[in-house]
Amino acid sequence: MTPAWIVCAWPPVLWQAECAPELHFVHLGTKVLSRGDRHQPCSGQTVWGNAAPEPAAGVAWEWIEIHEGVVAIADPFALVTNLQLLDERGERLPRMQAALHPNEILHALPWQNEVQRALSRVAA
């Protein structure tokens, strides 16, 4: 699996913010870091990247299992990405404004299915 936090070391990809939904990300890997117990939930990382070879855009985040079979993003403001989103004038979006776009992208992804698959493999 591609290590989740390596995404921030990929070359930056400049992208118009309003075109961000046009990026088609595919699953690159999901890792279960903690199997969880009654005191701590299952947790891990997942990595997604765009299907086109160039430019290589990616996004990664940590997830937690909040209830058996229910997973959530651990911290929506802690996404790791090499996307540098631009406004209509071609200037970089402020950090807080830019944080909204990757969240929109990942909410459209079937990432919970991939996390459930990884959890199933660990349980087997």
Written overview of the protein:
- The two termini are 19 Å apart.
- By secondary structure, this protein is an alpha+beta fold.
- It is built from two helices and seven strands, in the order E-E-E-E-E-E-E-H-H.
- Strands 2, 3, 4, 5 and 6 form a five-stranded antiparallel sheet that branches.
- It has helices at 95-107, 111-123; strands at residues 13-16, 25-34, 43-50, 58-67, 70-73, 80-81, 83-86.
- The model has no long low-confidence stretch (mean pLDDT 86).
- Helices cover 21% and strands 34% of the residues.
Report on the biggest sheet: 5 strands, antiparallel
Q: Would you report the number of β strands?
A: 7
What is the approximate shape?
A: elongated
Query: How big a fraction of the residues is strand?
Result: 25-35%
Structural class, from secondary structure content? alpha+beta
Distance between the termini: 19 Å
The percent range for helix content is: 10-25%
Overall pLDDT, averaged? 86
Low-confidence spans:
none
Q: What is the N-to-C succession of helices and strands? A: EEEEEEEHH
The radius of gyration over CA amounts to 15 Å
Q: Number of DSSP helices?
A: 2
Please describe the structure with a list of short key phrases separated by commas or semicolons.
34% strand, single chain, 21% helix, alpha+beta, two-stranded parallel ribbon, 124 residues
Summarize it.
The protein is an alpha+beta fold and 124 residues long.
Which helices and strands, and how do they pair?
Elements: E1 13-16, E2 25-34, E3 43-50, E4 58-67, E5 70-73, E6 80-81, E7 83-86, H1 95-107, H2 111-123
Parallel strand pairs: 1-7
Antiparallel strand pairs: 2-3, 3-4, 4-5, 4-6
